[in-house]
Design goal:
single chain; 171 residues; mainly beta; four-stranded antiparallel sheet; 1 helix; 3% helix; 42% strand; globular
Length: 171
């Protein structure tokens, strides 16, 4: 979960994003991404921690068994889905554990940039205002064994990502 401005935001494997008042525990709203995409019930392919800034909640999701990787922006006040950005199309998604998701890694927001990461399938920077992809990188390749994970970090002018694989270790 993420806490911002007195609201707890949770997002889980069923594709449900909830906004809960921190002081009272009252549900303020929810957004059902599984329904939004018309996905079948069951494990939906989500699991990142919500990113909250500037009145927006950003999430990642993987559709079509990892062939379509998205960043989704939800209005923090209403729960309305504002934009859905297909960040990557993946011809052959790598194997992963059945309880993991291709969208498990947690991104980061810096200013008006939303950085998202899908393990060896790619990392990208999205303009938070327009939803356009500013840049993408698909150069790093490694075997995650159980699927992508980890969180992005920023240090000074560097974007730091975890690339801990069973076949390669990047430093």
């Amino acid at each position: 979960p993420t806490v911002a401005n007195g609201v707890v935001y949770t997002y889980g494997a069923q594709g449900m994003l909830h906004a809960i008042d921190l002081a009272t525990g009252k549900k303020l709203w929810h957004a059902d991404l599984q329904e939004w995409y018309g996905a079948k019930k069951g494990f939906f392919g989500t699991g990142c921690t919500p990113l909250v800034a500037n009145g927006q909640v950003w999430l990642t999701t993987a559709l079509n068994d990892g062939h379509s990787l998205h960043a989704v922006c939800v209005d923090a006040a209403s729960g309305k889905i504002v934009r859905d950005v297909e960040v990557f199309k993946v011809e052959t998604p790598p194997e992963k554990h059945k309880r993991n998701s291709y969208a498990s890694p947690t991104g980061i927001i810096e200013g008006d940039s939303v950085f998202v990461h899908f393990g060896p399938m790619g990392t990208a920077c999205i303009d938070a205002k327009s939803g356009s992809v500013r840049w993408e990188n698909r150069e790093l390749a490694w075997d995650t064994q159980n699927g992508p994970g980890g969180s992005l970090a920023i240090w000074k002018d560097k974007l730091i990502l975890a690339c801990d694989g069973r076949d390669a270790q990047y430093e």
